[in-house]
Amino acid sequence: MKKTILGIFALIFLGAAPSWAKLNIVTSFPQDAAIVKAIAQDKADVKSLTLASQDPHAIQLKPNLAVMLNRADLLIVNGQDMELAWLPTALTNARNSEILEGAPGYLNPSEGVELIPYSPEELLSTPFFTTNIIAGTQSAGGGQVSVVRGNHHYWLDPANGLIVAQNIANKLAEIDPRNADFYQANLTQFQSALKERIAKWDAMMEPFKGTPLVSYHRDWIYLIKRHGLKHAGYIEPRETIPPSAAEMASLIQKMKAQKIPLIVTSPWQNLRLPKEVAKQTGATHLVLPSSVGEDVGVKDYFDLFEVVYGKLTDTLKGIQ
């Protein structure tokens, strides 16, 4: 007994992590935290830097973000410049070189996802324009190579959750090889359950293929494309830039002429604008949660899509 206690103290004072130490994992957004919890379970403490009800593009920097990042063993970002306006500063303040891009404690789980590209028109005069369309990287000859990022709301196609989960499990096994089999078993269970749910959700949406709708932002494009819905326009024509009066008038005219019956938004968006468009066009305005959290009434990853598809299909049935 005495030797055991002395051995534990020796590990602590020598700086070695005991075998029962949990990984400290931080994610940019709650949907990734939900997947990590399903795979890592009791092997990790998992925290999200943000809430589902917050605008993911414009998070207010607070000291607690730097503290969380400073203590992290692994940072999982969304990528595709979603965090461009706030995470680089938070990482600078955190002073944790082990979770910077390229370090072992950094993961962008979008690798392998088929991204929907932005057009230059969608990004014109936005904070993403210089990064995505102009800046690029230097070629060997000194010229610029275009680096066009894809739409960063890729997690809202549930099939991409299969890829994200695989990338997360691979990274967990890499930084914690002792528990690799545990992570793989949980991944297999997660992917099997998700595939079953996806088959059910696809069947729920099949009757509504071709239904036209308008979205506030580009967050629902992946789900719209997956189910063959007809996207007819945006409340916000350019990323993160509020619409002009002329743009609003043009959209309202189009919706009236084409009898577009539905507007879909997320909780963190300016709901005043879609409510006004709905009022003037007679369309239904539907707010769908786009991430996981008690603040939007979603308890876990699977529940996110159960709520989304439940509300969406109920609404579509009512407007057909």
UniProtKB/TrEMBL annotation:
Stretch forming the signal peptide: 1-21
GO-annotated biological processes: metal ion transport
Gene Ontology MF terms in the entry: metal ion binding
Keyword terms, alphabetized: Signal
InterPro entries: Bact_metal-bind_prot9 (IPR050492), ZnuA-like (IPR006127)
Superkingdom to which the source organism belongs: Bacteria
Pfam family for this entry, one: ZnuA
Protein name stated in the entry: Zinc ABC transporter substrate-binding protein
Source organism of the structure: Candidatus Manganitrophus noduliformans
